Structure prediction request, 158 residues.
Amino acid sequence: MNKKVSAVYPGSFDPPTNGHLDIITRASRLFPEIIVAVTENSVKNHMFSLEKRVELLKKSVSDIKNVKVISFSGLLADYLEKIDSFILIRGLRALSDFEYEFQMALMNRKLNKNIETVFLMPDQDYTFLSSSMVKEIAALGGKIEELVPECVADEFNK
Ligand code: ADP
Prediction:
């Protein structure tokens, strides 16, 4: 393998949490370059715009040198082909993530047989953490400072 290996970490990141950051940090130690790909998901109603999610992620990963953040829409398999990268990173928190992630990984492989999905597990402190839980806690007036990067907490406080 003579080219720089990039791995793509896709997600909606609505908003980015410390769990996402934990996975990005782990992945950045395994691969020369990590591309965090922020998706416009037609099924989910997002709280934050695509531009805002990209901005928040860029701020959150600014001290990790080999990470870049991009946005994309369309089919992930096509995007991977375009940038000539075939490694996907996904996070696994609990058994409940498994079925969906397993289906996605096999479907992406069906769409492009070169795609390999690498699953990383976060620190156990983050296994209970999800973007939707952060939104729910914030909506009910709870403290989210320990769950998300500072710039994300600031955004909620605005
Ligand atoms: P999607 O809408 O594509 O599931 P998310 O932003 O919710 O996007 O999650 C992106 C990826 O990050 C998924 O693989 C998800 O399982 C993983 N993830 C989300 N929260 C955590 C967490 N707290 N710890 C580890 N992985 C996580």
In short: Strands lie at 6-11, 33-39, 67-72, 87-91, 116-120. The chain has one domain: 6-157.
